[in-house]
Design the sequence.
């Protein structure tokens, strides 16, 4: 979640800069770059969450199998 919050901080700085920017083309480029960064962070955080969840599930299965073997 730190990645997402730092991304939002970055976007806030970019938007603040855009409010002061009087060059239209540069402002549009900044908005497009910020949108790409937000999209990338959203995709990465979803993939990381899925990977950690899958690893946790596999670990739980292995621990359960080991504990049932030891208990027998």
Sequence:
């Amino acid at each position: 979640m730190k990645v997402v919050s730092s991304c939002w901080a970055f976007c806030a700085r970019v938007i603040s800069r855009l409010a002061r920017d009087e060059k239209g083309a540069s402002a549009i480029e900044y908005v497009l770059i910020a949108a790409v960064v937000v999209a990338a962070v959203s995709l990465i955080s979803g993939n990381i969450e899925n990977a950690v969840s899958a690893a946790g599930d596999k670990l739980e299965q292995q621990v359960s199998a080991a504990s049932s073997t030891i208990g027998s």
Observations:
- The radius of gyration is 21 Å.
